[in-house]
Amino acid sequence: MTARRWLLPVVGCAAAVGAVAAVRYRAGTGSGALDPGRALAAGMGARRRKLAVVGARAGADWAGHRARRVFASAERRQLLDTAFELRTAEQVTAALGEMKGALMKLGQMASYLDQGLPEHVRSALAQLQSNAPPMSAELAAGVIRTELGRQPEELFATWDPVPIASASIGQVHRAMTHDGQAVAVKVQYPGVAEAMASDLSNLGLLFGGLGQLFPGFDPGPVVVELRERLTEELDYANEAANQTLFADEYAGHPYIHVPRVLDHLSTARVLTTELAEGVSFAEAAMWSDDERNLAAETIYRFAFGSLYRLRMFNGDPHPGNYLFRPGGQVTFLDFGLVKHFTAAELRPFEEMITAMVIDPDPAAFRRIIERVGLLPEGQPFDDAELVDYFGHFYELVRQPGELTITAEYASESVRRYFDQRGPYGPIMRAVNLPASFVVIQRINLGLYALFGDLHTTGDWRRLAEELWPFVAAAPCTPMGERIAQWEASRS
């Protein structure tokens, strides 16, 4: 599937139907944008009208582009295509960045989920990861005054009015407390709760429409799960509680760092934490093979160790949520989208791993996925076909030995979710997604996409066996041995 066709399904399954057209046609809203904080105050109708304008202008822009290509040489067509893609990607980035909320998350996801997108398109959309248009300094100060009772210049010894990062729900400012501690202060955009509610109101329509494409798909559990998880992101008090849980569990860890929350400077719309140090994902991706492999091992251990040992999963693995230091040290940011699992919810994952990887049994694997609702009973696929389809998601751990995660592997993962025209179309149209599986699919989509960007190599099977509590193998790397020593010292 071409890059142009891929952008639609990746983004389309993440939020409102109107945004699908906006991203598909790569159009923008032109100049003269409002301050993002004030623009968010627009209601559901205004956001829909803005998307309609995006789509209308996109159609006209695309028609003009096609006309210019007609009499151009092959070389000239390529130049025209690249210029058109870059121009419209920048316009879409600007439009989604101004709108914030769930719609902006579309662009964030599209920027890293599918490496099949042209690099210039991904680079433009990547601005939404942490460099979206910020709200004004006055609006940020107003939120802090409302939430904490005083101006930021009074609450903090020093306050930087220019944000160091801005994303879909809030922006982050650097400050210094009166006792000399450097902190990061995340301030929620005024009106973002209403914007998110507007976006989430379209989920039922979107996923109901997907039911026509995927006959076995039950949209109810997915809609409920996404609404609950995304709504939780708006509550910084909930995020502070999640972040504190992770910070406590990983306190003193030799590789994993979670900044501490300063409760007395945090509310439901302001979150103050320790200021973390490190380089961005883009810079870490330029490091040596050894350093990239160490960074990926730490992220892998954090994701699966938290899932299987703490029964928690931080469900927003995008490049803006990490800071890197040499030697495999990674700081993890943003705990607004955290899924807490029960032991009963995790048990099917263990059973599926056992039937697919540890003690391969295709018939048993089929019975498990039918029981948990991934596949309705009585579907006309033999067990080998199901193993061929689902086996891709276990490919990294099916056999021991070093394996490099490539961009192609990550893109194939996306295709197995959305490409109905491929060889797995009939299975795709039959499968379902239970609620407990919704957020966890960010591993298959988001996490492995990041590893594909890092082009990282490891013995993922041995590493997984160390992290799976139902195997609990001995440490398999120097990092694992050092972590074991840390765990022993804690106990």
Considering DSSP H and I runs of 4 or more, what fraction of the residues is helical? 55-70%
Please give the radius of gyration in angstroms: 23 Å
What would you call the quaternary organization? single chain
Count of helical stretches: 24
Number of strands: 12
Percent range for β-strand residues = 5-15%
Q: Give the overall pLDDT as a whole number.
A: 77
Based on Cα principal axes, name the global outline: globular
Straight-line distance between termini: 51 Å
Number of domains: 4
What composes the largest sheet? Answer: 5 strands, antiparallel
Contiguous uncertain segments of 5+ residues: 1-42, 95-102
Backbone structural class: alpha+beta
Could you characterize what this model shows?
With 491 residues, this protein is of the alpha+beta class. It folds into four domains: 3-129, no CATH class; 134-195 and 235-275, Phosphorylase Kinase, domain 1, CATH 3.30.200; 196-229; 340-490, no CATH class. It is built from 24 helices and twelve strands. The protein has helices at residues 3-12, 17-25, 36-39, 44-69, 74-99, 101-113, 119-125, 137-148, 152-155, 192-200, 203-213, 219-232, 236-249, 281-284, 289-310, 343-358, 362-372, 383-390, 407-418, 425-430, 435-438, 441-454, 460-467, 478-490; strands spanning 158-159, 165-166, 170-176, 182-188, 256-257, 270-274, 312-314, 322-325, 329-332, 338-340, 403-404, 457-458. The strands form four sheets. Strands 1, 2, 3, 4 and 6 form a five-stranded antiparallel sheet that branches. A three-stranded mixed sheet has the order 5-9-8, covered by helices on one side. It has a two-stranded antiparallel sheet with strand order 7-10. The radius of gyration is 23 Å and the shape is globular.
